[in-house]
Request: fold
Amino acid sequence: LPAWLWPLLTTNQDPLVTISLPSDGKVPLFLLLRATLAASMAFAELSFCHAIMSQKSETVRVMGLTTAVLMLFSAGMSHASGALLPSSTLTMLWLLAAAAFLKHQHIIFAFWAIAATLAIGWPFGVLMFVPLGLVVLVRERARLIRFVFLVAVLAASIQGVVMAIDRKQYGKWVSPTWNILIYNTQAGGDELYGIETW
Reply:
């Protein structure tokens, strides 16, 4: 998640944060954040399994039950679910997007896919959404122009919110998605955040 999130949650100076905590509220807030992330991951996993089990084929429904049992006993998923990491957040948003895909809720799929790509500042995750996105485009071919327009509006809205929050926190307009792409693709990108003299 973006670097501004933790300071925003730990300094009760922002009017958006109205949680009443003891004088040393950082530990309870940290635990609350981890519990919220874990509960969100549990919801995403249940949504994904429910979407599989709601399919018409009996074989696919059995696969949904098998997936639920495997996720239940997957120590890695359980341990990572409460971590404030881009990979954990991407996993959660992918599960929600895949559930929407299986239910043929294409706008909701697009929302989760765009949020996973733009909001967490980890654009490489878009590769996980390409195969499902191509299928969605084929399914929406009768209303393709309208669908692409709605997806563009969603993307602009999410990117605008992310950039507005970053503007408030950093005091300048920045795009984490653009910065990480520049950092990893251009020569000299390693100097994006400055260099330390020896």
